[in-house]
Specification:
By secondary structure, the chain is of the alpha/beta class. It has two domains: 300 residues, 3-Layer(aba) Sandwich (Aminopeptidase), CATH 3.40.630.10; 126 residues, 2-Layer Sandwich (Alpha-Beta Plaits). It is 34% helix and 22% strand. The protein has ten helices and 17 strands. The strands form five sheets. It has a six-stranded mixed β-sheet, with helices on both faces. A hairpin with a 4-residue loop joins strand 4 and strand 5. The chain is elongated and about 85 Å long. The relative contact order is 0.19. The N terminus is likely disordered.
């Protein structure tokens, strides 16, 4: 609770301006890094355009691999060894890992993802400028822009011969938007990379120059299946027929709302609900069909939803409350609840707070405001959470834009250079600690 209290206090600070302040405390080497980024910025924007125009929806396995190949070559060009890990066993494309090796300074893990939510059949496929600084771009904000920031931050370090004898791993998963199952396979390489690192920086889309993410809620799915006795509606509530499946499901959901809701950072949402005489629910496709009549007691009901939590303890408390509610069935009905793990929680640890302070100092030194912790209630789950138990973590260092996951997604190109500068200086200082 000490970490959460400290965290809650820190997110109360809101900055109303990101006006550039005079840069200070930038040494000669760091000035060279900044100059390289400035010189490469036009190329970085073109690189972003090129990879955005390659469709890499999660289930477009060839497209994800093609984007991985483009990034893999670019990393090899700056002295990294790249590896592609095939994920056909979990019905996904694969992951790109590029790394250098050494034992100087902190070992840094940089996390991105190659896939987007826009599959091959999406109408949103092309990078298009709206004005001189904003572009509509499928996945440009979430998160190909962040991938480009990683690449060009490291390129600036490489061009100035600053990566000798250091360990940096750039890990780009190919299924962040829809993780392959089981997670023990689809996140094996990322977790192993975390175990041999000291710090992990995630480059999911940025929420602003004055925010970074040091806590992310975990994500779990849940499903409730209810069975009742099918009969003529005139017999409902009788000893033999009971309440029916829909009344039982209504009881369960209402009690979830009144008895499970209430803890800070805990939310749960029933995303789809079907009930009637006959129910056919396709969980994989998130769709279903139902048949029922007003004069027939419902025989089946199913609900599928999501659960968000700030710690594993909070997750288990919520699950146990849900199990207890489900067990207390109405007459002549049976119900069961199942849980499907997805993303673990990333708590606001002291190490994460310290990393935020270092990043805020970099921001100040470059003439930008303090960076404060972003409210985890406003962020979804992300790959950085898989390594949070092993390393100090911070996320939200990627591109800026709006409307991610929608056909209106934009990326702000004018911010790419400055965001890359901050990332590069932070990485440089970490590998020299």
């Amino acid at each position: 609770m000490k970490f959460l209290l400290k965290f809650n206090i820190r997110i109360l600070f809101v900055l109303f301006s990101i006006a550039t302040l005079p840069a200070q405390n930038i040494n000669t080497v760091e000035k060279k890094i900044l100059k390289s980024i400035e010189q490469n910025n036009i190329e970085a924007i073109q690189f972003l355009k090129d990879v955005v125009n390659i469709n890499s929806g999660t289930m477009n396995h060839q497209g994800v691999k093609k984007v991985g190949d483009v990034f893999g070559k670019a990393f090899e060009d700056i002295g990294f060894q790249s590896n592609w890990y095939e994920m056909s066993d979990v019905n996904r494309s694969g992951h790109l890992f590029a790394e250098t090796s050494g034992d100087r300074g902190k070992r840094v893990l940089l996390i991105g993802h190659l896939d987007t939510v826009f599959e091959e059949n999406s109408e949103f496929q092309e990078f298009k400028m709206i004005n001189d600084s904003i572009a509509h771009a499928p996945g440009g904000n979430d998160m190909k822009g962040g991938n480009v920031i990683i690449l060009f931050a490291l390129r600036a370090l490489a061009e100035n011969n600053l990566l000798d004898n250091v360990q940096i791993i750039a890990a780009f998963t190919g299924d962040e938007e829809a993780t392959g199952k089981p997670l023990t396979k689809s996140r094996y390489h990322l977790i192993e990379a975390g175990k041999r690192s000291d710090v992990a920086l995630g480059f999911e889309n940025s929420t602003g120059f004055d925010n970074a993410t040091i806590a992310r809620r975990g994500s779990s799915d849940w499903r409730v299946d209810v069975t009742g006795v099918r009969a003529h509606s005139s017999e409902i509530f009788s000893d033999d027929i009971g309440a029916g499946a829909i009344f039982e499901m209504s009881r369960i959901l209402n009690n979830f709302y009144t008895e499970v809701k209430g803890e800070d950072f805990l939310t749960f949402n029933p995303g789809i609900l079907l009930g009637g005489t006959l129910v056919d629910y396709n969980q994989q496709q998130s769709e279903g069909n139902v048949f029922g009549k007003s004069n027939v007691v419902s025989q089946s009901a199913v609900v599928y939803g999501g659960l968000r939590f700030i710690s594993e303890d909070q997750k288990e408390r919520a699950r146990e409350k849900m199990r207890a509610i489900v067990r207390n069935s109405l007459p002549q009905t049976t119900a069961k609840v199942t849980f499907i793990d997805s993303y673990p929680a990333m708590g606001p640890t002291e190490g994460n707070l310290d990393l935020l302070d270092k990043f805020s100092q970099v921001s100040n030194d470059l003439g930008y405001p303090d960076v404060v912790a972003y409210d985890p209630l406003k962020r979804g789950a992300a790959d950085v959470s898989f390594v949070a138990q092993y390393v100090d973590c911070m996320d939200g260092l990627g591109a800026m834009g709006n409307a991610a996951h929608t056909p209106e997604e934009t990326v702000n190109l004018n911010t790419i250079e400055d965001l890359t500068k901050r990332a590069a200086i932070l990485i440089y200082r970490l590998i020299n600690e």
